[in-house]
């Protein structure tokens, strides 16, 4: 199976509204065991499914880059509203049931206190650490949004160019270096054949990798939903293997390989390929910054009782 990594470097850009109200230990008085409970549930899931790290990273990214980190991605569609979940870009996002499990445990411990947005942020951090990533502090105090519409989802896909992805990151206050860093999250998890089948004749892909992918994805009657580890060397370990692979032209997705080929990004790719510690530090900083994109704080939004439903609807 082929392993996929996405990394992004954050310059610690400060969002004034976010940092005015978010703080490490936000729940220390209102729900002292909140982070412990999140960590315990994530640990149990990770013990039986190590791919949950990739799932949560993707969920967190897809949430923050639409309306900000407000858990709008968790809302189920209704007859009157197609939520973000219904958008094509979110069709393979998974891990919702884990968020539900954490929320139920927290509601038993301290009802209507911990937001779903904070649950996503904390659970993602904990899963990265379990996979071998650097532990970083997470400021909490986010509130959950009141809006979730599929029409607002306009995320870059696996066939995007570096310039196109940079446009989306820049619109959310993120730099080029942070973009390259966060795409390193593809160092864990898997991807579906349908996302890269059009690359099986790409001269920019290592011939041995093309042959291996072709044997899996070009078989008669092969399932387009079949998947491969995104990183052929360490698909469940959070490290810099993704960068090492794309330097060798062994990137599975088009956007991944372009990071090592485009003059905008290839310099940092080379740095990360040779320095895991630098990647880990940059990734931690970038995740902190991403987790503060357009957050709702104070009296904004709500604290959902059920992460899938707005309180007014439940």
Sum this structure up briefly.
It contains 12 helices and 6 strands.
Structure overview:
The protein has about 325 residues and is mainly alpha-helical. It folds into two domains: about 15-155, Peroxidase, domain 1; about 160-285, Peroxidase, domain 2. It has helices at about 15-20, 35-50, 50-65, 95-110, 115-130, 160-170, 175-180, 205-215, 240-245, 255-260, 265-275, 275-290, and strands at about 5, 25, 140, 185, 190, 225-230. The strands form three sheets. A two-stranded antiparallel ribbon has the order 1-4. The protein has a two-stranded antiparallel ribbon with strand order 2-3. The protein has a two-stranded antiparallel sheet with strand order 5-6. The longest helix is centred in the N-terminal third of the chain and has 15 residues, at about 35-50. Mean pLDDT is about 90; it is low at about 1-20.
